[in-house]
Specification:
204 residues; alpha/beta; Rossmann fold
Amino acid sequence: MHIILIDDHALFAKSLEIALEGTPEIERFQSLSDVAEAVTVIQKERPDIILMDIHLNSSDSEDGILLAKKILQEVPEAHIVMLTGYDLPVYRYEAKRIGAKGFLNKNMEPAEVVRALLQIQNGQPYFPASIDFIETLTDSEKRILQLLSDGYKRKDIAGMLHVSERTVSNHLQHTFEKLNVSSSLEAVAKGIQLGYIQPVFRTL
């Protein structure tokens, strides 16, 4: 099995390489930190599996989900497996929605990772036992919820997005209904829990 890992955390990439070293099922392991080269390298190398970190600190702020979609547009047969330390429902949902073949937590044991990769290589997707049903938010609703969590008032958000305060309120009302909450505070808390609001710190 030939694996390419796309992750800009050099320490984690090396740790995973060492952990998987000597595994007979893995013939070749490559790590790639330059997001800009991803599509070109994958088209050239044609790996069996692409491990993709969800959080990528690339210069163009392109995260793993967006990069995975781009790769699948260029290489539809690619077997992409999302990898993250943030096992949040919305990430699992998005990974499955875009066509990823699996979703792995960075805290998994190496042996478990290998089993999952073999399962995927054999044509069986690997996702957590259950993916909670998520009432998806629109891009505007997610943006407003993020700004709300950053401490901005509705009036400020309206100015930043060049819309009326009423429009912001309408978006928030729809968000409250979808998340089954009744206040901005509850919406932010639920947004963090589900993964709609980005973590403040990006770690391994």
